[in-house]
Amino acid sequence: MRQANLPLCEEHFTWWFERRVERTLRRYSMVGPGDKVLVAVSGGKDSVSLLCALLELSEEMGFEISSITLDLGISGYSEACVEASRRVAGELGVEHHVVSIRERYGFTLDEAVRVVRRPPCSTCGLIKRYALTDLAREMGFDALATGHTLDDMARFILSSYISASLDELVRLTPSSASGLPGVPKRIKPFYETLEEHIRLYAEIRGLEYMPDGCPYAGTAPTDFLRAFLAELEARRPGSLYSMVRGYLKHIRPALQAQFGDGLRELRSCSKCGLPSSGEVCAFCRLREKVLKRLGRGGGP
Ligand code: Q46
Ligand code: ZN
Predict the structure, then answer these.
(1) Helix 45-61 vs helix 10-27: angle between axes, to the nearest 10 degrees?
(2) Which atom of ligand 1 is nearest to the CA of 217?
(3) Could you report the per-residue pLDDT of 206-218, keeping only the tens digit for each?
(4) Pocket flag, ligand 1, residue 216 (CB < 6 Å)
């Protein structure tokens, strides 16, 4: 642990890692006894590690977990992600669901990328956020857990800062409830955990994961900040943690005092009922556009 200048053996590292996740779960009241938590698994190192760590903690903390993988329809890639996720969930003995975006919403990510002008990772992010909330709600879960890491959060905070997106900035919380009945809260149990440690945990636990190999990788709007943040952390270990904690302790409360929980009020989308900042949510608008351009007509 470079931040603490603390050498740990494999056994104590695993113990330390899981305690840290437990601290995050408790600190932000992410789960309670009896809660049903759906874990989003993409097959990558972050989400398979999340599944393993939450399974370890679920018994002593008294919550239940199940897992889900979206088949996004990225040709030559999604099949392998689904298979890797299925294998890990099977090895850990966790219930696992696979849902095809094509079957549920009528189009694949590849098709959406062909017909809309937005960057692929941004379209993908919108589809994943929507579909996972939609499915967790339908299946009656209390919370949806995603593998967002400390590195991701630092990147989102910095990027919202650079573009002065106060509305985004105020929403980058470890746990967020929509406030709408039946819509599960979204939780990020790795909010305070570095990717470097997650990689090590996956290796020590012997978890098999998909190497980064998505053909669209590198098109996320915040990707340009990755190298900068990695260098910052290498030069000053602990910087990402202080950035994210500083945001939560000082910056967000100041924003909240001025704007509340968001600059735009959330309400139910008039087409699908999920949270939306306008009359129709961004996903329903995207879906309608994609289906129309593909000649498949109709929206939800
Ligand atoms: S799957 Fe989707 Fe990632 Fe591929 S299109 Fe981008 S966001 S890179 S985690
Ligand atoms: Zn909608």
Answers:
(1) 70
(2) 8
(3) 999 998 789 998 7
(4) yes
pLDDT tens digits for range 39-51: 999 999 999 999 9
- Ligand 2 centroid–CA 268 distance in Å is 8
Is 187:144 a contact under the CB 8 Å cutoff? yes
User: Whole-model pTM?
Assistant: 0.94
CB atoms within 10 A of CB 297: 9
* Residue 275 neighbours by CB distance under 10 Å: 17
pLDDT for 10 = 86
Contact of 45 with 204, CB cutoff 8 Å: no
Alpha carbon of 130 to ligand 2 centroid (Å):
9
Q: Indicate if ligand 1 lies below 6 Å from the C-beta of 174.
A: no
Residue 26 corresponds to which tokens in the numbers above? 């408790």
Q: Name the 3-class secondary structure at 187.
A: strand
